Amino acid sequence: MKILLLFVYLWSLLGLFLFFFSSFTISYTTAFQGFEASKPQDYPSVTFKDGDRLDEVKRECKSFMSSASELKPDDNRVHRIKNELPFLNGDWVQEGGGAPLIPFVDINMPNSSSSTHLPNKNSSSSTRHPLNLISFWVTGVDSAHPSQKVVGVTGMLYMGITRNGSFAYKPYGENAEFQMWPGRSQLTIFFQGIYMETEKNGGGRVMCLLGNAMLPARQPDSTDPWVWVNYYRPTLLQDDQILLVLHYPKTLTLTTRAIRGEMKSLNQKSNIKFFDKVQIYSQLGPYANYEFGSTQLVSKACEPYPYPDGLIDDGIDIYRGSELCGILQRFTSGEAFSIVPNWKCNGSGDYCRKLGPFMTGSEINSTEGGFKNVRLLMQDVRCEPRKGQGNDNVARVSAVFRAVPPFENPYTAVERTGLSNMTLTAEGIWSSSNGQLCMVGCIGLVGAELDGCNSRICSYVPISFSITQRSIILGSISIISNKTGSFFPLSFERIMQPSELWDQFSASHLSYKYSKFNQAGAVLERNQPSNFRAAFKKSFLKYPKLEDSSGFLVSLSVLSEDLTLHVSAIPDPIPKVRRQRTSVQMDVISLGPLFGHYWSSENDSSVKGEIPFQAKTESTERQLLLNVSAQLTLSGKLYSNVSMLFLEGLYDPTTGKMYLIGCRDVRASWKILFESMDLEAGLDCLIEVIVEFPPTTARWLVSPMAKISISSQRNEDDPLYFSQIKLMTLPILYRKQREDILSRKGVEGILRILTLSMAISCILSQLFYIREKLDAVPYISLVMLGVQALGYSIPLITGAEALFRQMASESYESPSYDLEKNQWFHVIDYTVKILILVAFLLTLRLCQKVWKSRIRLLTRTPLEPGRVPSDKKCLLINLIIHMVGFIIVLIVHAINASQRPLPPQQYMDRRGNIYALWEWETTLEEYVGLVQDFFLLPQIVGNYLWQIQCTPLRKVYYVGITVVRLLPHVYDYIRAPVSNPYFSEEYEFVNPSLDFYSKFGDIAIPVTAVVLAIIVYIQQRWSYEKLSQTLNSRPHKLLPLGSRVYERLPSMSFEAELVSGVNDSEAHGVSERMSND
Hints:
Elements: H1 2-31, H2 54-60, H3 62-66, H4 77-84, E1 87-94, E2 131-141, E3 150-162, E4 177-181, E5 184-198, E6 204-216, E7 236-248, E8 258-265, E9 278-283, H5 295-302, H6 324-332, E10 336-339, H7 349-353, H8 362-365, E11 375-387, E12 393-404, H9 410-415, E13 423-431, E14 437-443, E15 455-460, E16 464-465, E17 471-479, E18 490-495, H10 504-509, E19 511-512, H11 517-526, H12 531-540, H13 552-562, E20 565-571, E21 582-591, E22 594-595, H14 604-609, H15 621-624, E23 626-634, E24 644-652, E25 657-665, H16 670-675, E26 683-692, E27 707-712, E28 725-729, H17 738-772, H18 782-797, H19 800-805, E29 807-808, H20 817-821, H21 823-860, H22 872-899, E30 906-908, E31 914-916, H23 919-933, H24 937-946, H25 955-974, H26 999-1021, H27 1024-1032, H28 1052-1058, H29 1064-1076
Parallel strand pairs: 16-19
Antiparallel strand pairs: 1-2, 1-9, 2-3, 3-5, 4-5, 5-6, 6-7, 7-8, 8-9, 10-11, 10-18, 11-12, 12-13, 13-14, 14-15, 15-17, 17-18, 20-21, 20-28, 21-22, 21-23, 23-24, 24-25, 25-26, 26-27, 27-28, 29-30, 30-31
Organism: Protea cynaroides
EC number: 2.3.2.27
Subcellular location: Endomembrane system
């Protein structure tokens, strides 16, 4: 039996193992299916059968076959055809003859106010113009019927018009189709034809194919051939008379890399299926080997080498190592260069506004040489390292430079392969002896005369940075000969992003050179705080500083992380009209001698050998100042003038302030820039920035928000002047303040335990009190007790407290894993719930005592029920009062919301589902808390109605409960008025997002509650007769005359029944004796 159980156990384990292994395999395979388009395709070979269109292909392609040369034996030909001849995201242009191929609908698209029905007709109001893109794949090669001159092939063409997207992914299915929706039209055509090679015009490769497609029908004899697009009901026509001819170069070189094609209709012009010719432009893809060989062109452009372009200043260090190819691949792959404005140009307008050798349109020319939002891509980088003379390292590099206009989608531009007057094919050399990469550039489609190869490209990789030099790659494009037209040298740069500093390359090669410490010191002197304020800060507040126990470089790295800001911000002071939050990103580039970040694992011995910072020297305040450089980025249209600032200055750890000089990239016309003689490397550096960080201590009393001030030092009439900007961030946390947040939550939990314990003590005190004051028990208001019981029951029944903690916020994320799993907080939470349950049960017991006392009193006087206190009128009056109050609150809240609109509140359940709350629901939740704060109001109304002559409530009870209700408001008033970034709402002790926990509410509500407690004290301190005599002695009577309706009866008749442990017979005997009297 044991052997059988062991076998079953092992078999189950084996089954589970196979199940998880198969699941992992399936998921792994699925995850990598997205890379299918980027790897070499190995499509199965196809065989032409009887009935294929081979005869038609030979007839239509007869002119090309006549010039075809014999194919040399090549076992790798099929593989090369399949992988070298496809192209992605090329360009297509249709001749304007009145017969367009496909329509395009631009309505209902962002940034567009008009529709475009024809592909060659673009809306000038759109910020992104549609692109005509085309891709082609070889789907099969006929290897079963070898021929001396041709090879049978099949292919698929995927073309269309799009504003936001590409055609890089091959469609699924084997049927030709046409699809269209706003912003995109796409057409799929399947082809069958032949491949051949020719020696004509220097040699090349040709594919001639016949296609089959479903074309959209045009409206004949109409000014608008696409009337039906307004109804989105296309009429499709099957057409198999489509001829496609593609011309490929044999080898990939500087001057032979272009793919040219032509697609035309074989139908008559009178046929509705006829369309105008389509010209296709692309280039050989990454699976074609590049052949370096344009030595003469490179020598002509780069003599003497290195070419003296004057781009690099003497203070900039240049990379001279052996890893240039890796650097180019890393910093150019998918990234765009920024075009530097022609701020040095002093020529004519056309000369200074021209974008180098590129043939631009009105969109770029309108920037007047500022080139705002114009980008330059470096595509298809081929780098071949070689060994030079001696210890010199050299490399041969080729690439394609593509100018990207402002209206073009940058993500689509990265994938484009078409060659045009906006592209520059380049090839050149690099040597480590001088660090210059010099290349010759050829504009557009290069002809046999090589007239377009008249551009020189010089670029460098700087490894030293400053406030005016933040580029990891910079270069210029200049003209070689003025025969074909001149242009001002075009400069470009690749800004180093702060996120790219977290690697070994940055730590081992890059450095920073400070140059603005004198100007920053002047800013510090002008903004020094008063002596008293400075002394207070130094005595009681601590700010981010170097760690005492760590090594110097480790301390600098930790401090740079604390001084980094990635947070939202709002204007300071907060405007009445609500504005969208601004995203603030301030990344520390260098701090003191440290550039980037220090990795202690790289050199543990040096870290251990370092002297701790505190043991180095006793420093004065001036010596404690640290040099710092940073990069500040602001989002939003309001801050477009200072969207990116390069900062450098001083950090004072005693006051937590940075005093910085800022430089910004100015995108103005070349005339304004040239006339501004105070620019530094084309940057506006007359900017002062002050960043004030919150202290690391006393976060309960000081707002943990950073403040940023940006001001221009120019005159107001200067075209580069901008108004002062003041921002206040949302709460921030330093690295070691996570424990502070945890302890604060724990302290607030302990405060809840203490307040609930105090409330329980007060209720117990009242229970003991009514055992001695039995005659006053019926005059305790059940409405008052019901309000308190309601307050205790809501968190127990509906989970309202959990709801308050899970209120979704637009600025903060969900609680962290550590906070949710902390056992200490679970203990506090469970203790709080137990105490709430105890308080609820004791309140119910008190209600029971009052209810029984009134029943006994009613049984004693059944013929005079009016002599027994009743809460009906009391409940009605309180309902009216609170309904009127709630309506007033809604009106006031609506007025405030109209002046400063707030986002709708949401809450999240335990499953993560988010639900919206109506405005009145949120306000009602707040008002319920207000009703609990004013719990004595029903008792005051009851005392007035019942004309009491006793003391129903013990002072410890109503004063103690009042204090318990007021403690959250007092706590909220004295603590820092900010929220905890780790939680959706504030802390569980109070909810400051509610209007009743505003500063006004924190004052008005306690004062009102204290007044109610004083009124109860006065009502119980003096009897109703004394109050009536005192208040009615004046000319105006404030109280009605006494009434005997609620005249108290002797309470001894039911005293024994309220005391536990007394039997019914004794109580009955006492009752009879009282009645005989």
